[in-house]
Amino acid sequence: MYDLKNIETWESKFGLLPIKLDPLIQEDKFLMLNGGVGDFCLRTSSFEKGNIEQIFQESWSTNTKNFLFIGEDSIEVTNWYDSKIENISKSRVNLNLEQFYKYLSSKSYKTQNDVVPFILDIFRQLRNITFEKQDSSEAINLLFHLLISLEEDYTHIDTKKWGISESNFPDKFDYFVGLINQGVRNIKPNLDLILRHTSGVLFQEAHREVIYFNPQRDLFGGVSSRLETKLDAYSSIHYTPQYIARSIVENALKSFDLETKEIKILDPSCGSSEFLIEVLKQLKNKNYNGKITVKGFDTSDSAIRTSNFLLTYENRKQWNNEIVVEIKKVKDSLIEDWGKNDIILMNPPFVSWELLKEKESRDNVLNILEDVIKRARPNQATAFFYKACLSLNDGGIIGCVLPTSIFNSEIYQELRIKLNNELSFKVLAKLGNYVFEDALTDVSLFIATKAHSILLPQLLWTRNEKGVVQDALREFRKMNSNNELSVDSKSYSIYTPSHFPILNKSWKIISLRENEFIKELGIFNKAEKLSPISEVFDINQGALLGIKNVFKISSDDYELLPKQEKKYFRPILTNNSIRNGKISVYEYVWFPYNKSGLIFKDENELEDLSFFKTNLLQNKEILEKRAGITHWWALTRPRNWQFIKEPRLFSSRFGSSSSFGFDKEGNCVIEEGNAFIPKRTFDSADYYFYLACFSSSVFDLLLSIYSKPIMSGYDLGKIQIKNIPIPNINKNLLKQEPAYLKLVQLGEELQNGNSIVKPVIDDILRSYFYPNF
């Protein structure tokens, strides 16, 4: 039987995080957090009749539906949306706890009548009045007044007490005051619960850039709530989902000494202070009573206003105004004095070097990173990350969201080495591209302390699919609550590796299955049965043509060329030309080169060519504008290794095991892809051997470990795959082995279009080269 009055039961069974609803008043009321889906309120005592209005108010104001009361013999489930009170025997729940929780989750779906969309609807109306397109400072200040009207007369507010500015109220502002005070179904909003438990989702809307307003009023003074806001999938500003901030704070505090008498907390890109509010909430939940200083920087005026409002309220209501709050609007956080801090939490701006338009911003990034990054173009988030690590006190902890490139990219190698020596890693997580709303950024989490430790970090890997991250973080909490060592499923893995970094000079996070596989590979590497690709091949990039659709022609157009001109064209390979080992030619490229280089050195030599008249001459002006080109009719980068026709193994630029092909005649030119040039002389059989190896499911697994994932597969370029271990035909008399001959034959079958042999290839590779695949 489960002890359902024990909050830890719900944490260990379902991975829920219990947060006290109001630690100053009710010690037995909790908000049970599940990553935003299936959250509910819970009280570890019996339901009190006649108090249903307050119960509905508390569940609605915390953006949940259900409120559970755990009695001695039964559980009462109230639901404000259904206006129901259900009585379920505790014994029945105990027998079917999993089913009971699924039932609760099914009754927790989101609606437009929930507290967050209800308030946002009013907020959008205010924005249609203030007409603030990029900065919603005035509308957000009006929203503060509206929220405060839930507790006080908005016309006589002590602005210093509330941490807000004076506002010029628009005509018929009382209409909006009446709206928010009325609530939904006569459920009056509870300001304290709204600000403590739903402020993150609520106030992130304030940062949206409006691209269309609709200020039309109705007969009663209301304004349309219809706005079109900017949702940029490639923006550098990504708002931290509450469940992400919550998990980072939760795991950071686990590694922090809460016996310390004073804590200095910093968020250098605080936004609306999602992290700062969350850490204060969890510190209060843990009954911390030492001195606290919170600092935050941001460039947005509306963000600073929101932070001041929320932190002032939290300080006054929960901490008796004993917290020191320092929130500052800045031009660039990187040039501010961050001081030394005990806890640094952040989601820094993910601004690529190319998007840093101002030279001053680029200089600020380079100045911070000058001792760890040379001759590279770093992301701005890297400078935030490095400065944060340098701004920790001894024993301090950092918890942050980061671009995954910091974990993997070669340009951050020195930074990783330095921090690996100075920090003790606690949790590293690869979360993928589906964390931020309407953004495609590849995201990871990083939690570490500035303290020496022999303990290895916990690693969390997730499959790059929607909805997986919430499940994985909840399972992480559940695993730790139950003191389990690892969790492994198809969609995520959580474990402590035998060593870290797993891959040399990288912090790449891989699944538990991949980790076990790579341990076996290490044994074979030491026995020299496998070698890195870079020891067997040079990997060269394909040609850069120059101007799109000028130099390429279709196969049909090629056939129509005069016979004497065809020698200046060669089949071209693109991402669409290779499939499961078979090369298909759809286009030809103008390639006027021989082993000595460009054939035509003077424009007059081209005048008799029909292609010159129909394609080149009419594009002469634009072709001449290309930088670094001596002859305007030449390709921008033909790659001189393609001048000589030799057998070559090719791959597309991005892809998987299905993206390799062999050109036996050596006639093809590769554009969107790579050529694998043997470091020692190959015969045709050797090429077929490696075509089979690269076309296997085993190689897909190796790509998942070593390469960078993209939407259509993996990056097949030299930097990403050079360390992948493959059989080396130049060692251990491999060419005399039966496996070699079998794989050669299977490679020939692939080139002929027989892809059904791929499972046979896998079997041979598993038997001879990759055990425990």
From TrEMBL:
Q: Which GO terms describe its molecular function?
A: DNA binding; N-methyltransferase activity; site-specific DNA-methyltransferase (adenine-specific) activity
Q: Name the domain of life.
A: Bacteria
Q: Which reaction does it catalyse?
A: a 2'-deoxyadenosine in DNA + S-adenosyl-L-methionine = an N(6)-methyl-2'-deoxyadenosine in DNA + S-adenosyl-L-homocysteine + H(+)
- Report the EC number(s), separated by commas if there are several: 2.1.1.72
Domain DNA methylase adenine-specific intervals: 238-486
Q: Write down a Pfam family by its short name.
A: N6_Mtase
Entry similarity comment: Belongs to the N(4)/N(6)-methyltransferase family.
Protein name per UniProt: site-specific DNA-methyltransferase (adenine-specific)
- Which organism is this protein's natural source? Sphingobacterium athyrii
Recite the lineage of the species: Bacteria, Pseudomonadati, Bacteroidota, Sphingobacteriia, Sphingobacteriales
